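Think of the structure tokens as a kind of shorthand, similar to the way a musician reads notation: each symbol stands for something richer, in this case the local conformation of the backbone. In the example below we present two proteins back to back. Begin with the first one, reading the sequence and then the tokens, and try to describe in your own words what changes along the chain.
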Amino acid sequence: MTEETQNTLKVGHNAFDHFTHGLATGEWDLFLDMLTDDFTFWFPVGSFHGLNVGKEQAREFFHYVNEVFGGISITSIERVTSSETTVVFEFRDEGHMRGEPYKNRIAVSFDIRGDKICGYREYLGSDGKSN
């Protein structure tokens, strides 16, 4: 494993820890502090569907996540894959979505530049009710 790949994996794990904390508590500042100024993210559904640009848009998105879910727990990490610039986490989560029980399989991808996240993509794996 190259030094650059090791750094990417280290930064990715740090970002995922902050991401997990944000999902569980609604406190996103540590994760948002890791974003580059030109941060982009892609989300597959809803009002943030498609490509979104900028830290302020990310702040709005994660505020939206808090409103919809009000706390999500990661129940297992299925796989972590990395390259020199990207780390992908596949995991299962559960909680409540708009007051109804929620379980899902998710993959999130972090693009890393230096010690920051410059890109994020999320992929949903089920109907939101199964795991």
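Once you have a description of the first chain, move to the second and do the same.
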Amino acid sequence: MIEVTKSASFEEVANNVKQNWKLIAKRYIPSDVETNVYTFKDISNGLGFNFKLPHENKHHFKVEVRLSLDQLKPQSTQTLQSKLLKEVGKQIIYVVGNYQIDEAYDPAFTKKHHYGYRQLEALHQDEDIMLDSAQAMVLGAKFSEFNQSADAKYDFLAPFNDNQIDLIKAVYSNLIKKFNLIANVISFGGFSTSVSNSKYLVATLKFQRIGGSKSFTINIFSNQVRKFAEKFAEHGMGEEQAIYFIIRTYLSKAVKEFSTNENLAPNLELDKESYIDMIADFPKQYFKLFE
């Protein structure tokens, strides 16, 4: 991971931002949206992010974000990538939102911009594309699990369907029974509008052994499930394998990070040994869990 320090020069920051942005764009920006990062030095030093929209030739709306050097430097607990995800995502939402407010409340909006039905339809498609990406970036800044596997090809904001929710519950329940863990309630969530309509984008699962002190929280996202389900379908496996793979991958990573701590209290040392043994017993394929 490419990072910057608080004492880094503008040129160092610019180079690191551009390198990190390549990774972000690959995950979060649809292939038909072109992006360009440029430096500016006017009132302050900073970097700009241009987005060439798929239907830009049909309307006048352009998405451009400018961040100063101070906005680009991450806080002590942040990575540069999470800082970029949060700041660029927030600014895109602001830019698109302001344009949508103009359309909603300015009676002369369509006349001023010479927009007819086709132009407005193209505009709304491009606005939706950018809002989906921007909200996904903000989500990726908050959840490392989402950021590591986010993929613009699989509709960031499409919620879990009923079958996927049932499968998440079933896979979790079977893991709890298999390894004799505490059965916690699964938390389903998303953005406020989606949750109010019972459309969930994330499921939060907690794993803790009975009598243990250490627990692990794993987040599963609808974007992840669709992505990995397609990959496993190529090998004749269903969505339950995709869900199991996501849980296994991120729980294994969390246990590994926990187990590298050499200064654990005696009760946590017992947890450490138990969780390491548990992960070692996780088969690669879900159906083998029942053998």
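Compare your description with these statements about the second chain. The two ends are 40 Å apart (CA to CA).
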